[in-house]
Amino acid sequence: VITANTSSLAELSATGGALAIDPKSAAALKDAVFQVLHDGKLRDNLIAAGYDNVQRFSWQQAAETILHLMEKQA
């Protein structure tokens, strides 16, 4: 994943599953795409970190959080 360092996606990917770049820099985007395409070790590390990161999230957890917030408001 290549994401903007100015959005919430950079925070979500802080575990290393993405390259966060300046979204206003064409050079930064070009460099990041080049890195992901040509650096197999980096690509493998990003993929592994992404799989690890996704374990932090689940539909069950999201539903429980929403239910808790709704009950708190009632």
Compute the separation of the termini in Å.
39 Å
Order of helices and strands: EHEHHH
What kind of sheet is the major sheet? Answer: 2 strands, parallel
Structural class: mainly alpha
What is the CA-atom radius of gyration, in angstroms?
16 Å
What topology, given as strand order, has the largest sheet? 1-2
Strand % is 5-15%
Give the number of DSSP strands: 2
Shape: elongated
Helix content: 55-70%
Count, helices: 4
Q: Which regions are unreliable across 5 or more consecutive residues at pLDDT < 50? A: none
Give the averaged pLDDT, no decimals: 90
Describe this structure in words.
The chain has 74 residues and is mainly alpha-helical. It is 65% helix and 8% strand. The protein has 4 helices and 2 strands; from the N terminus they run βαβααα. The protein has a two-stranded parallel sheet. Helix 1 links the parallel strand 1 and strand 2. The longest helix is centred in the middle third of the chain and has 15 residues. It is elongated. It starts with a strand and ends with a helix.
